[in-house]
Amino acid sequence: MKIDNSPIERVEEFKYLGTVLTNKNSIREEIKSRLKLGNACYFSVQNFLSSSLLSKNLKIKVYRIIILPVVLYGCETWSLTLREERRLRVFENRVLRRVFGPKRDEVTGEWRKLHNKELSDLYSLLNIVRVVKLRRMRWAGHVAHMGEGRGVHRVLVGRPEGKKPLGRPRRRWEDNIKMDLQEVGGGCGDWMEFAQYRDRWQALVSTVMHFRVP
After folding, report:
1. Measuring CA to CA, which residue among 146, 168, 167, 165 is closest to residue 156?
2. Is residue 8 located within the same domain as residue 81?
């Protein structure tokens, strides 16, 4: 393909504004890229996270301010499956184990890694999956209030031509919004219509913010 006599190569994936886009419209490669960058960021500060000179609260701030934004860049548009949610939680738990350190077993007296439940009890803030859901809900509210002339709104409500491929349909971004609403008791109706009521929508976003899951 040529644009203004400049050849444009056809590729299976490319990076645009820091986000990996694929010809299959899959978010999996983007999450792999984000986790890779997050790991690089984590390794660059792991000495701080394991230092006995810093408090646990300060270490958590390092994670929230330095590492987490790298991993969750553009997460408002992610459509997550349970598999990808688990990958995000595994990454976060690895960082938190470095933050909180090992625990001495009361029976054997040996040091061991903290279990996921113990990490959840120690880490009182929103876990990484809950942060994604919160940001996604906020973004959904902004999109719902956009006019029909805005490109983002047209992409959301538009329907591509052609036949759907055989097999089970993939989970869409809109499906995630509906599932998040059901999780916090927001019903299963037309979410875009519901989002027009700003106060009610903001109340749901606040519920997502304070909704704790194991």
Report:
1. 146
2. yes
What would the DSSP string read from start to end of 104-159?
A: E-TTT--EEPPPHHHHHHH--S--HHHHHHHHHHHHHHHHHHS-TTSHHHHHHH--
Nearest to residue 33, comparing CAs of 60, 11, 14, 12?
Answer: 14
Torsions phi, psi for 6 (to 5 deg): -105, 120
> Which structure tokens are listed for 23?
């010809």
| Cβ-contact 176, 80 below 8 angstroms | yes
Provide the residue type at 175 as one letter: D
Residue 192 belongs to domain spanning: 134-156+171-210
CA 138/CA 202 separation, integer angstroms:
8
- pLDDT tens track for 68-116: 999 999 999 888 888 999 999 999 999 999 999 998 888 788 888 999 9
Same domain (yes/no): 106, 142: no
- In 3D space, the residue among 100, 94, 146 whose CA is nearest the CA of residue 122 turns out to be 100
In a domain, 62, yes or no: yes
> CA-to-CA distance for 58 and 104, rounded, in angstroms?
23
* % of the chain residues with pLDDT over 90: 36
Q: What is the pLDDT of residues 131-180, one digit of tens each?
A: 999 898 888 888 887 777 777 767 776 666 666 666 666 777 788 888 88
pLDDT of 59 > 90? The answer is yes
Indicate the number of domains in the chain. 2
- Closest to 18 in 3D by CA, of 72, 73, 65: 73
Q: In this structure, is residue 138 part of a structural domain?
A: yes
pTM (two decimals)? 0.82
